[in-house]
Amino acid sequence: MRIAVVDDEAPARRAILNQLQTLGLQATAEYSDGCAALDGLRATPVDLVFLDISMPGMDGLDVLAALPSAARPLAILLTAHSTFAVRAFELGVVDYLLKPIDPVRFAEALMRARERWQWRGRAPAPTAPSPQRFAVRVGRSEHYVATADIRWIEADGDYATLHTAGHAYPLRQTLHELSQQLDARQFVRVHRSAIVRVDCVAEIKPLTNRDALLRLDDGTPVRVSRSYIDALLATLQAVRG
Question: Which residues in 140-150 are b (16+ Cβ under 10 Å) and which e?
Answer without folding.
Answer: eeeeebebeeb
